[in-house]
């Protein structure tokens, strides 16, 4: 009986492994390789030291876990860089999937495909040295001069949830928002929580993360998905792989390893 | 009608006919063959999406008001500063030599650096010195960057205008007993400025477009607003919308500059 069970389990495992192995065959850009795009530069804590090949950092680690689940060895993962515009422009893509904290939105989904979410990011408020005493209430936040990265879902969040008195200033990337915070041109900026915690700890002296929005507040829960060309047959394989690493706890483990404990940041009232 | 006139009329009609036919054929080719390209459906959906255009155009127009504001306060400042720099470079007295050096250095530096770099360096750099609000505003320092850059170009155009007024006029005016200042103000400048109006129109058109560079340091003008829509909707149509708004302004302005230029050429002959 025991032998039978073991055999069954072994066969089941083989079957699932075989399924994972075969799913992606012939569906990738280069046969036998999985091409993954990240940002240029890729930011901590998503990718450490702008070197995704190392597998260090949350997104890099998730990428390798998914690749392994899909039957690709570590050496079969090829990294390329892409901007947001390259990811959404019409025509052939130079990546199988693109991971750079892309929030899944219905509008974007009309043009590209997203995998199932691999992370749900609460939005967090990062304030500069001049505004660290701001209480985490919507009332107090309205009075601040806001900034954000113009290409992120932080912009609609600002407009719909915070509705600041003064028009927010928008920037091209994180570095420019930092410059504006450091120059005291803005009081506060809206980022996803892991990015905000990193910026406050490492990049901007005297800044502080004063609060986070509950992950599902407003009409705009920020869920990160891997971006793929619309109609990419690989999507099912990627989703299956994400399901698998979610179910066996790998994803949670990677999250615990790379993303700081976010429970210490108060919720915004 | 003489035979000659009849012949010429015939020739004119023939060339009009050929021009019309060739234009129609060219348009038809564009209209028929471009949509036959394999990627046209995707390109149309992502660059020429009527729904997206309708949805975003009103907000783009709102943002364009910011462009107009920045343009409106920068243009007069550029004219004044440009003229002062041109006069500084033209100073004749030996005691004014430092002024000439200053004028030459100014034009060399600000014509030599790409506008966007000047905008970045001045827009983030000077507020970074610790100026209190509102004196660290990106609107203020961004405009200053535009003013400095464009004043350098405008100064050179003014200088060429001043040089275009013949020396004999200055000599004649001096011999009549006018002072150096009076000669410049009452004799040379009125002619010089008139001579360079068409060239300065071109600078105005260029400035009108370069106002968008201020988006790099925070102000949400039309280019940034289009970028926000592009990211949210994953669609490039808002950029096309912005381009249309620019064209509506710049095409008449360019035609007017051409007209001024042509009129000047006629008058000089």
Tell me what you see in this structure.
The complex is a heterodimer of chains A (269) and B (269). With 269 residues, chain A is an alpha/beta fold. Chain A has 2 domains: 2-118 and 225-258, 3-Layer(aba) Sandwich (D-Maltodextrin-Binding Protein, domain 2), CATH 3.40.190.10; 121-212, Periplasmic binding protein-like II (D-Maltodextrin-Binding Protein, domain 2), CATH 3.40.190. Chain A is 37% helix and 17% strand. Chain A has a 5-stranded mixed beta sheet with strand order 8-7-9-6-10, sandwiched between helices. The radius of gyration of chain A is 20 Å and the shape is elongated. The model of chain A is unreliable at 11-20 (pLDDT under 50). Chain B is an all-alpha fold and 269 residues long. Chain B has helices at 3-33, 40-47, 50-90, 97-112, 115-125, 138-164, 167-175, 180-210, 222-233, 237-268. The radius of gyration of chain B is 25 Å and the shape is flat.
Write the layout of secondary structure elements.
The complex is a heterodimer of chains A (269) and B (269).
Chain A: H1 2-23, E1 34-38, H2 58-69, E2 77-81, H3 84-88, E3 97-98, H4 106-109, E4 112-114, E5 119-121, E6 123-127, H5 138-142, E7 146-149, H6 154-162, E8 169-171, H7 174-182, E9 188-192, H8 193-203, E10 208-212, E11 222-224, E12 227-229, H9 234-247, H10 250-258
Parallel strand pairs in A: 1-2, 1-3, 7-8, 7-9
Antiparallel strand pairs in A: 4-12, 5-11, 6-9, 6-10
Chain B: H1 3-33, H2 40-47, H3 50-90, H4 97-112, H5 115-125, H6 138-164, H7 167-175, H8 180-210, H9 222-233, H10 237-268
Helix pairs in contact in B: 3-4, 3-6, 3-9, 3-10, 4-6, 5-6, 6-8, 7-8, 8-10, 9-10
């Amino acid at each position: 009986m025991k032998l039978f069970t073991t055999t069954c389990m072994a066969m089941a495992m083989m079957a699932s492994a075989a399924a994972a192995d075969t799913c992606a065959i012939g569906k990738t850009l280069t046969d036998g390789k999985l091409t993954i795009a990240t940002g240029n530069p890729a930011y901590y804590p998503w990718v450490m030291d702008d070197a995704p090949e190392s597998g260090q950092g949350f997104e890099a680690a998730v990428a390798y876990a998914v690749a392994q689940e899909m039957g690709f060895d570590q050496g079969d993962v090829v990294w390329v860089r892409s901007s947001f515009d390259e990811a959404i422009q019409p025509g052939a893509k130079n990546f199988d999937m693109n991971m750079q904290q892309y929030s899944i939105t219905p509008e974007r989904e009309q043009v590209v495909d997203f995998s199932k979410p691999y992370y749900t990011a609460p939005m967090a408020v990062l304030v500069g040295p001049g505004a660290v005493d701001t209480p985490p209430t919507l009332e107090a936040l309205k009075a601040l001069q806001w900034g954000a990265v113009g290409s992120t879902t932080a912009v609609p969040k600002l407009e719909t949830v915070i509705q600041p008195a003064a028009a927010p200033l928008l920037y091209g990337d994180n570095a420019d928002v930092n410059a504006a915070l450091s120059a005291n041109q803005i009081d506060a900026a809206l980022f996803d929580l892991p990015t905000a915690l990193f910026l406050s700890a490492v990049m901007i002296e005297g800044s502080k993360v004063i609060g986070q929005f509950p992950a599902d507040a407003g009409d705009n829960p920020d869920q990160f998905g891997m971006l793929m060309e619309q109609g990419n047959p690989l999507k099912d394989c990627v989703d299956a792989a994400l399901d698998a690493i979610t179910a066996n706890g790998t994803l949670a483990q990677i999250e615990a390893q790379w993303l700081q404990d976010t429970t210490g940041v108060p919720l915004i009232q | 009608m003489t035979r000659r006139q009849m012949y010429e009329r015939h020739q004119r009609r023939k060339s009009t006919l050929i021009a019309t036919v060739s234009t129609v054929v060219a348009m038809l080719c564009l209209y028929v063959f471009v949509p036959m390209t394999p990627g046209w459906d995707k390109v149309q959906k992502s660059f020429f999406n009527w729904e997206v255009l309708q949805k975003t155009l009103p907000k783009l127009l709102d943002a364009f008001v910011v462009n107009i504001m920045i343009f409106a306060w920068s243009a007069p400042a550029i004219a004044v500063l440009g003229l002062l720099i041109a006069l500084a470079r033209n100073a004749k007295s030996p005691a004014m030599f430092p002024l000439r050096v200053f004028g030459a250095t100014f034009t060399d530096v600000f014509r030599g650096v790409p506008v966007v770099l000047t905008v970045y360096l001045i827009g983030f750099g000077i507020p970074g010195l610790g100026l209190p609000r509102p004196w660290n505003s990106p609107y203020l320092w961004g405009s200053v960057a535009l003013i400095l850059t464009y004043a350098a170009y405008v100064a050179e155009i003014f200088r060429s205008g001043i040089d275009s007024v013949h020396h004999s006029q200055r000599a004649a005016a001096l011999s009549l007993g006018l002072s150096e200042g009076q000669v410049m103000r009452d004799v040379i400048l009125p002619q010089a400025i008139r001579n360079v109006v068409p060239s300065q129109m071109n600078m105005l058109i260029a400035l009108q477009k370069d106002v968008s560079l201020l988006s790099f340091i925070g102000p949400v003008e039309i280019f940034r607003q289009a970028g926000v829509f592009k990211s949210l909707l994953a669609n490039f149509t808002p950029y096309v919308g912005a381009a249309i708004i620019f064209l509506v302004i710049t095409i008449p302005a360019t035609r007017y500059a051409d007209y001024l230029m042509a009129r000047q050429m006629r008058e000089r002959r």
